[in-house]
Amino acid sequence: MEYMVDFAHFLLKKATCCICSKTLNGSKHLNLAILDKKATWKSPVWMSSLDHQVRAVAVVCDGCHNENPGFVEIVKYAIEVREDEIMLHNVDELENVEPINILPDFNTGSMKDVKYMPFIGYN
Ligand SMILES: [Zn+2]
Fold first, then answer.
1. Cα dihedral angle (102, 3, 88, 120), rounded to 10 degrees?
2. What is the number of structural domains in the chain?
3. 110 vs 76, residue with greater confidence
4. How far away, in angstroms, is 105 Cα from ligand 1 center?
């Protein structure tokens, strides 16, 4: 978990929003969106226990997250982190995978109908 927290810190500091391209510096939450797109890189990705497909993820600023209830649909980029370099992949250029709509809740493990998780929060 320590690694995850460091990783979240890193993304909040260095990454830009995958919708509006602004820095995540002002965001209190790291909002992760899971995309129905195949990830061909190592990290960060999300693998579903439902279909074992490795999916690309996006990070979204608090503003875009709060203003757009269906924000997963308007994500423009998926994020890749290699060493400490951030690369963005245009979602239109990624291979589609079969959509899944039911995901386990990050905190409780229960299944719910969401496509994103507020990964970590800061005050
Ligand atoms: Zn944004």
1. 50
2. 1
3. 76
4. 23
15 CA to middle of ligand 1, Å?
Answer: 11
Question: Global pTM?
Answer: 0.80
CA of 100 to the centre of ligand 1 (A): 24
Instruction: Find the domain containing 80 and state its range.
Output: 2-121
Between the alpha carbon of residue 81 and those of residues 14, 38, 84, 108, 114, the distances in Å are 10, 15, 6, 27, 24
Q: 22 CA to middle of ligand 1, Å?
A: 6
The answer to whether residues 50 and 99 touch, using CB atoms and an 8 Å cutoff, is no
Q: For 54-107, write each residue's pLDDT tens digit.
A: 999 999 999 999 898 778 889 999 999 998 899 999 999 999 998 876 665 656
What are the pLDDT digits (tens) for 5-53? 788 889 999 999 999 999 998 898 888 888 999 999 999 998 877 778 8
3-state secondary structure labels for all residues of 79-113? EEEECCEEEEEEHHHCCECCCCCCEECCCCCCEEC
